[in-house]
Design a protein that fits this description.
274 residues; alpha/beta; Rossmann fold; 2 domains; four-stranded parallel sheet; 15 helices; globular
């Protein structure tokens, strides 16, 4: 009787869902997280730009896997996924179609800080059945960030401005602010009260007293910025104080952004890396 009761009790307990085996990632940021945590056999396809090194910091690794043709629902569903990873900036109609198709959908919506990245890693670790792997990666990241902070302890933050060919600059509550917070930099746009990605107030840039400009891209970006009067006239630009961070590194929404912290810190505080 006791054995029968035990069997009945076990039958009444909910069974843990099996880890997904056909995961499709719909955005570059989720590509980065998925590649870090999943078993190769769990990955059905990555985003349509995952193989492009101009945008993806994991392009070399991503080429081992298929890529969806586009970011639309039809391209995703062609791979018969049992889990789809998307980001909050995915088109609402795409998310609606995926939900209507009955596919399990995880939408990651916080990217501004490294703590947001850790939260995403934990969510994905649970979904994939690799919670311990997620925690191990978070521990590695914390150690790397702590080592950088120790190198920069006591430095005077360099006053910096995010510069680009588009008429926007990055204020508080952005990934650029997160970059500054870890690299010994003071974001003059945030100091002036800008939040998020805001139109560049060209008439105010001179009084912000930026000591260096930070741009995303390759060395060709200098010529592009020189064609924009409000950057060309800044003392920092005239003095050649422009730090260029590779686009995929600068724009990373995952733990790969730590490489940007390190690159910017080296450029702004070379004396701490000798």
């Amino acid at each position: 009787m006791i054995r029968l009761l035990a069997i009945l009790l076990m039958m009444s307990l909910p069974f843990a869902a099996a880890p997904p085996q056909r995961v499709v990632s719909q955005a570059v940021g989720t590509d980065e997280l998925l590649l870090a945590l999943a078993d190769p056999g769990q990955i059905a396809a990555l985003s349509h730009i995952s193989h492009d090194a101009r945008f993806s910091p994991v392009a070399v690794e991503a080429k081992r896997f298929p890529a969806i043709k586009d970011s639309d629902a039809e391209s995703v569903l062609r791979f018969r996924p049992d889990l789809v990873l998307a980001a909050s900036f995915t088109r609402p109609e795409t998310l609606a179609l995926l939900r209507r198709a009955g596919v399990r959908l995880v939408v990651l919506d916080r990217f501004d800080t490294l703590e947001d990245v850790y939260a995403s890693l934990r969510i994905l670790g649970r979904e994939l059945g690799h919670e311990a792997r997620a925690e191990a990666l978070i521990t590695q990241c914390r150690s790397r960030v702590e080592a950088l902070a120790a190198r920069l302890k006591g430095v005077k933050p360099v006053r910096v401005l995010s510069a680009g060919i588009y008429p926007f600059t990055s204020g508080a509550d952005t990934t650029f602010q997160d970059l500054c917070d870890h690299a010994g930099a003071l974001n003059v746009a945030a100091e002036a009260g800008l939040k998020g990605h805001a139109p560049t107030p060209s008439e105010k840039l001179l009084v912000w007293n930026a000591e260096a400009l930070i741009a995303s891209g390759d060395q060709g970006v200098r010529a592009q910025l020189a064609a924009i009067p409000h950057y060309r006239l800044l003392p920092a630009f005239k003095a050649g104080r422009l730090v260029v961070i590779p686009g995929p590194m600068m724009a990373s929404l995952s733990h790969h952004r730590i490489a940007a912290y390190e690159a910017l810190a080296r450029a702004l505080h070379p004396e701490r890396f000798r």
